[in-house]
Sequence to fold (94 residues):
Amino acid sequence: MKTVRAMDDIQPAYSAFLENNHYPKLESLSNWGKNRFFFSLYFKLIEDWHLTEQIVIEMDKHFYRLDTSEAPDFLDEKPYLAWLKGALLHQYAV
Fold:
């Protein structure tokens, strides 16, 4: 899989993830499961740094802690991508 290295890579990776028929049915996963599955394919996950609803990823040598309990439904593209990009930009600016 292609690793996401920049904000501009997120939309194509998300679309490719939803279109791929080789994955299990996403509808059967929880929202956290969908997020974790997506992040595990396109980002480096930091396994020891997360709590129950949090996922820590690395992108472009920066670490981001994402609270998936605040995430919209993963399959709802526009709100989800807006949340994800906003969360990444907010942490990058801090």
Observations:
- The chain has a mean pLDDT of 86.
- The CA atoms of residues 72 and 78 lie 9 Å apart.
- Residues 7-93 form one domain.
- Helices lie at 10-19, 31-42, 77-93.
